[in-house]
Design brief:
Dihydrofolate Reductase, subunit A, 3-stranded antiparallel beta sheet, membrane
Length: about 90
């Protein structure tokens, strides 16, 4: 199944046009991370402290090194961190 995902992403990227926006749970995102098909990570940090919860990137097989390329701060207090994978 993951090879189907990788080939479909490659096919969509060849078409050109707008970016592919992936929004979903940890298992969906982990699939794309493991395949190495994520070009940009946009992480939003909300100003709420939780006592428990699920890890953002659970069950990663390998470390993913990221390079911060931009930050955005919003009136709501949300901070968006934009990263590219280091090569």
């Amino acid at each position: 199944m993951s090879s189907d995902v990788a080939s479909k992403v490659a096919e969509i990227k060849k078409e050109g046009g707008k970016d592919i926006w992936l929004y979903g749970g940890a298992s969906l995102i982990n699939t794309f991370i493991q395949l190495g098909v994520i070009d940009i990570y946009r992480l939003s940090v909300h100003s709420t402290a939780l006592g428990s919860g699920k890890p953002l990137f659970g069950d990663l097989k390998n470390q993913v090194n990221l390079h911060l390329i931009k930050t955005n701060t919003f009136k709501s207090g949300v901070v968006q961190l934009i990263y590219q994978p280091k090569k």
